[in-house]
Amino acid sequence: MDAVILLSHRFYKVSLVLFFKYFYMETTKVKLSALFIALLPLLASPVIHADTPSAPALDNRAAQGDITAAGGARRLSGDQTAALQASLINKPAKNIILLIGDGMGDSEITAARNYAEGAGGFFKGI
């Protein structure tokens, strides 16, 4: 974490120096000092990152264990039906996805088949 903060402070310092060199030719010293004062808090700001200590089964899909061993890259363990049912909300859909195409592309056929027959289904005759 200290290395990330150190790198981010170096990035801010370098970007501020380059920014000031560019605007030094075109602005007065008063504008430059006002800009420096306005951007000064960026040098002291910490890096904000997401910290997820405990994620639900559906969100935490990183491989656990040694990925070089047989079955080591397995991400899900056990039945996920209860987790999927808990994540469903009994409300109408808010978003509509409209696929526009001539209907002959692989992606359009796959999307239509998955919607109509499910991911393991198939269209008869294709």
Q: Summarize the amount of helix as a percent range.
A: 40-55%
For the sheet with most strands, the description reads:
none
SS elements, strand count: 0
Dominant shape? elongated
* Individual helix count: 5
The secondary-structure element order is HHHHH
Write down the overall mean pLDDT: 69
Structural class computed from helices and strand pairing: mainly alpha
Distance between the termini: 54 Å
Radius of gyration: 26 Å
Low-confidence stretches: 1-7
Percent in strands: under 5%
List the helices and strands and how they pair.
Blueprint: H1 2-24, H2 29-39, H3 41-44, H4 81-87, H5 106-117
What does this structure look like?
The structure is a single chain. The chain has 126 residues and is mainly α. The protein has a domain of 43 residues. 45% of the residues lie in helices and 0% in strands. The chain is built from five helices and no strands. The longest helix has 23 residues. The radius of gyration is 26 Å and the shape is elongated. The N terminus is likely disordered. GO terms for molecular function: alkaline phosphatase activity; metal ion binding.
Descriptors:
single chain, 126 residues, mainly alpha, 5 helices, 45% helix, disordered N terminus
